[in-house]
Amino acid sequence: MAIRPIRLFGDPILRQKATPVLDFDKELRDLVRDLTDTMIDANGGGIAAPQIGVGLRVFTYVVEGEIGHVVNPLVEVVGDDEQVGQEGCLSIPGLPFDCRRHLRVVTTGFTMHGEPLRVEGHGRLSVIIEHETDHLDGILFVDRLDPRTREAAEAAIREAEWSGGVVPEIRLSPHAPLRAARQR
């Protein structure tokens, strides 16, 4: 379909809660195709609709060559195991940081055709599901960083060529922190 421009950190749409999809129509199918094309072109692991300026609860992903999408996702954590690893974002290009996520999640939602969908994420797919669902709630991965890493992220963003020396608000995630973060 089309490769769309990716909105960068500081764009207000990235901080807005996306609206649930009500119409499973051609427009939605075109959006999913545009998200997929944009994600692949940018060499990303996932992309959410707000990242291309569309305030709907839709994201696409690719893991080990498997491409998928979820409309109106609901995420459930499976177990207490966590993982820490380098995480990046197409809206914060070239700046990965260590971020703590759950090791396993299950997301339910719908396909672009309105069919019920269940995706079990483990490892990298779990990170992508959590990351993209956060986008749909106006949360960025830098909001989930521990305080020291968040300071490093602010400095790196300020120095990034694409930021113009400005660091938009990095805020604490409104979601409950993961176990290791609570122990600090």
Automatic annotation (TrEMBL):
It catalyses: N-terminal N-formyl-L-methionyl-[peptide] + H2O = N-terminal L-methionyl-[peptide] + formate. The keyword Transcription does not apply. Binds 1 Fe(2+) ion. GO terms for biological process: translation. It comes from the Bacteria. Its EC number is 3.5.1.88. Transmembrane segments: none annotated. Keywords: Hydrolase, Iron, Metal-binding, Protein biosynthesis. GO terms for molecular function: metal ion binding; peptide deformylase activity. Fe cation binds at C89, H131, H135. The active site is at E132. It is an enzyme of class 3 (hydrolase). Its cofactor is Fe(2+). Belongs to the polypeptide deformylase family. Removes the formyl group from the N-terminal Met of newly synthesized proteins. Requires at least a dipeptide for an efficient rate of reaction. N-terminal L-methionine is a prerequisite for activity but the enzyme has broad specificity at other positions. This is Peptide deformylase. The lineage of its organism: Bacteria, Bacillati, Actinomycetota, Actinomycetes, Propionibacteriales. The gene is def.
